[in-house]
Design a protein that fits this description.
The strands form two sheets. Strands 1-4 form a two-stranded antiparallel sheet. It contains two helices and four strands, in the order E-H-E-E-H-E. By secondary structure, it is of the alpha+beta class. Helix content is about 55%, strand content about 25%.
Length: about 70
């Protein structure tokens, strides 16, 4: 499995938000560090990170791409 650093993850989320604000919908894919991540996978990543933050009280150091 591949991982994103917290910085890469935040960059990915910022680009997704920018795309949604511009186009009114979420992108089919997120591209970060030459990795193409389908909507289902990046949505799952965001959900897992949010759950981690709520449970642990901090951000994860890296995020697994599934």
């Amino acid at each position: 499995m591949k991982h994103l650093t917290l910085e890469e993850y935040r960059e990915m989320v910022d680009s997704i938000i920018d795309f949604k604000n511009t186009n009114g919908e979420m992108p089919e894919y997120a591209n970060i560090s030459n990795i193409k991540i389908p909507r289902e996978d990046y949505s799952n990543m965001i959900e897992r990170v949010n759950k981690f933050i709520l449970e642990m009280g901090r951000s994860p150091r890296s995020i697994e791409i599934k």
